[in-house]
Design a protein that fits this description.
The structure is a single chain. By secondary structure, this protein is α/β, with parallel strands linked by helices. The chain folds into 2 domains: about 1-105 and about 265-368, Isopropylmalate Dehydrogenase, CATH 3.40.718.10; about 130-260, Isopropylmalate Dehydrogenase. The protein has 12 helices and 12 strands. The radius of gyration is 20 Å and the shape is globular. The two termini are about 25 Å apart. Bound molecules: 3-isopropylmalic acid (IPM) and magnesium ion. 3-isopropylmalic acid binds near residues 90 and 94. Magnesium ion (MG) binds near residues 249 and 253.
Length: about 375
């Protein structure tokens, strides 16, 4: 049997430096757990544009379709702000999502005990927080047609279209129900059925699936604006949330910040099952390219390391090893190791990106 495969697309900004730490982790699993992953690397985003004049080369797209999983660092940076929309770094990421058909984006927002003080909310509101946002990722206003900037009555009009088919709602809802079952068995479906037809259909489809196939899962519905408010008022009321592409983009940033540590949060984007029964998948940290600190060894590699842990769980069927890696990161935090993003200004000297990675390796060694 061939080894599981991984395509690493480190991308821009802090992407490459956090990926160096993930490579150490991957090597550790090969050496110490007999879990060898065949890694290839390629370019995405601004880095791909610099070399090929496009944020995602066709050959890279083809490779992404062949591997068991893709691990992406981050894309974008000020050097590319003035590029035409069609070749901006973000287009590379959106093409991967769309062509791999990665419709279910899992964004956990989990508050690490050791970091509860870092939230902008009171500690008691966030300690123990564990939310899973399932964001629809390949449709809605990000991709709906018509779209564009057009001339109309002597002025320009910018158009995007919020559009969802029943089957698009159906498949992401089922993913969310399945996940809810593995968690606290509660699912909150979020839309704006009070003003949008796409929201009315969303609610109808989710309600029907729930009644027919997931009667054991406690289903509730919430308007997106109320959900934003409830997330900052009392976030622990939520278990699993399912929502559309645009609301999910916004609400997941909000939920991520509640945990006080954007630099800690991973994500998984899952598509339809391949021949081996595993879903097409791409993993990426929730944080962006952070160009202001890139190349200085300040970045927190934990979100990318935890994204690899999600790959172990969902793509490689190595749930126990994923648990081991997540526990190692928690131990490092509990031991007080902190990159700069996890410290109050003026506190003791922060750990560098490399020191954080090494600390995780040491914790992995200690787990044996
Ligand atoms: C995200 C990001 C992307 C999005 C950008 C970089 C295109 O904000 O993954 O949440 O809007 O989906
Ligand atoms: Mg976003």
């Amino acid at each position: 049997m061939s080894n599981p495969s991984l395509l690493i697309l480190a991308g821009d900004g802090i992407g490459p430096e956090v990926m160096v730490e993930v490579r150490k982790i991957i090597d550790w699993f090969g050496a110490k757990r007999d879990l060898t992953i065949d890694v290839t690397e390629d370019l995405v985003g601004g880095a791909a544009y610099d070399k090929h004049g496009t944020p995602l080369h066709d050959d890279t797209m083809a490779k992404a379709q062949e591997v068991d999983a893709v691990l992406l660092g981050a894309v974008g940076g000020p050097a590319y702000d003035d590029l035409d929309f069609s070749i901006k770094p973000e287009r590379g990421l959106l093409r991967l999502r769309k062509e791999m058909d990665l419709f279910a984006n899992l964004r956990p927002a989990q508050c690490f005990d050791a970091l509860a003080d870092f939230s902008s909310l009171k500690k008691e509101l966030v300690a123990g927080l564990d939310i899973m946002i399932v964001r629809e990722l390949t449709s809605g206003s990000y991709f709906g047609e018509p779209r564009g900037i057009f001339e109309e009555n002597g002025e320009r009009v910018g158009i995007n279209t919020q559009r969802y088919t029943e089957s698009e709602i159906d498949r992401v809802a089922r993913s969310a129900f399945e996940l809810a079952r593995k968690r606290d068995n509660r699912l909150c479906s979020v839309e704006k059925a009070n003003v949008m037809e796409s929201g009315i259909l969303w609610r109808e489809v989710v309600t029907k699936i729930g009644a027919e196939d997931y009667p054991d899962v406690e289903l509730s519905h919430m308007y997106a604006d109320n959900c934003a408010m409830q997330l900052v008022r009392n976030p622990k009321q939520f278990d699993t949330i399912v929502t559309d592409n645009l609301f999910g983009d916004i609400l997941s940033d909000c939920a991520a910040m509640l945990t006080g540590s954007l630099g800690m949060l991973p994500s998984a984007s899952l598509g339809v099952p391949m021949e081996n029964g595993k879903p097409k998948a791409m993993y990426e940290p929730v944080h962006g390219s952070a160009p202001d600190i890139a190349g200085q060894g300040k970045a927190n590699p934990c979100a990318c390391i935890l994204s690899f842990a999600m790959a172990l769980r969902y793509s490689y069927d190595e749930g126990a090893e994923a648990d081991r890696l997540e526990a190692a990161v928690e131990k490092v935090l509990a031991d007080g190791v902190r990159t700069a993003d996890l410290m109050q200004a003026g506190a003791a000297k922060p750990a560098s990106t490399g020191e954080m990675g090494d600390a995780v390796i040491a914790a992995l060694d200690a787990s044996l």
